[in-house]
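Need residues for this backbone.
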């Protein structure tokens, strides 16, 4: 099971228990709130993300945030802090979050609130998507992939040598 699948399963469990939940990728959430800010309706749009008991924010850190995005994200986390749950998925370690937000100080402030009453689940290993492709024979084993990559890395130099001989 992957990060997103686990987050969705937890949100579904909350819904079955009668609690509202909402799912959004980090990029879409910050884009949506940034647009609302520019249009003068941030407070109204923020209420959408403050309302559910469970907010799933998927793919945190795949794309860096600009200063406005980081500030708005901080506002959202602060407003939900100790009031409602956030389930967040990321393939970045906490030490890398300064680069996500472009500022280690705001990253620390966000992490401080997120981690205060949290449980971190670290999922290691190959993604389920790669495992499925490998089982279907569509992807080589990791050791085979390394050999192929080494061959491909050497191939351009071999091709140049062949052209030089002509």
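Answer:
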């Amino acid at each position: 099971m992957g990060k997103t699948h686990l987050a969705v399963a937890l949100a579904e469990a909350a819904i079955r228990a009668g609690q509202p939940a909402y799912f959004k990728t980090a990029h879409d959430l910050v884009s949506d709130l940034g647009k609302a800010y520019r249009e003068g309706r941030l407070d109204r749009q923020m209420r959408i993300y403050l309302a559910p008991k469970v907010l799933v924010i998927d793919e945190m850190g795949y794309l860096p945030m600009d200063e406005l995005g980081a500030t708005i994200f901080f506002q959202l986390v602060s407003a939900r802090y100790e009031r409602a749950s956030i389930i967040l998925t990321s393939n970045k370690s906490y030490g890398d979050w300064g680069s996500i937000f472009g500022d280690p100080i705001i990253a620390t402030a966000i992490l401080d609130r997120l981690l205060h009453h949290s449980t971190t689940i670290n999922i290691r290993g190959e993604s389920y998507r790669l495992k499925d492709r490998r089982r279907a024979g569509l992807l080589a084993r990791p050791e085979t992939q390394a050999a192929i990559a080494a061959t491909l890395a050497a191939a351009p130099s071999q091709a140049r040598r062949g052209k030089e001989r002509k």
